[in-house]
Specification:
The protein is mainly beta and about 150 residues long. The protein is built from 2 helices and 9 strands; from the N terminus they run H-E-E-E-E-E-E-E-E-E-H. Strands 2, 3, 5, 6 and 8 form a 5-stranded antiparallel β-sheet that branches. A 4-stranded antiparallel β-sheet has the order 1-9-4-7.
């Protein structure tokens, strides 16, 4: 049996950043704990972008707590080419293996930062965070369902 068969039961899914206009300033998603996670993926979608809109940053950062203390980039966890991330409906997935984080330095939370270098109109993005626990955690048992799932 493949892991996808139990996807809803084995993965924590959260809205990382509700639809946000990043025209005047960049935005950082919610910070998620990685202490008991073996992998995390952020799905970012462009909802609207003006004709002059150009993205300059889409990267995963790490911090020591849920408020973003000491935030710094995770090496290699960034979109480096925005050629295919420049139109409404475009999506990007950033995945992080916690072993790439500075765990020894106490960095155990992750978030995504998104920004634009050129923008004149409305530019909105939405982000979803998927976290795979190392083992069946109490977080899975107590999480408030944020998604309705139908399996056929």
């Amino acid at each position: 049996m493949s892991a996808i068969n139990n996807f809803p039961e084995n993965v924590l899914m959260d809205i990382a950043l509700a639809t946000t206009d990043i025209t005047t300033a960049g935005a950082t998603s919610t910070w998620f704990p990685m202490t008991n996670s073996q992998k995390v993926a952020f799905l970012t979608q462009i909802n609207a972008i003006d004709a002059a809109g150009v993205f300059s940053a889409l990267k995963v950062q790490q911090a020591t707590d849920a408020s973003g203390t000491g935030a710094k980039d995770i090496t290699g966890a960034a979109l480096t080419s925005f050629t295919n991330f420049a139109a409404a409906g475009a999506k990007a997935i950033l995945q992080v293996d916690p072993t790439k984080m500075d765990l020894a330095g106490g960095f155990n939370h992750v978030a995504v930062f998104v920004d634009m270098s050129t923008d004149t109109g409305t530019n909105t993005v939405t982000m979803v965070c998927l976290r795979e626990p190392r083992y069946h955690s109490t977080e899975l048992n107590t999480a408030t369902p944020s998604t309705n799932v139908v399996s056929v």
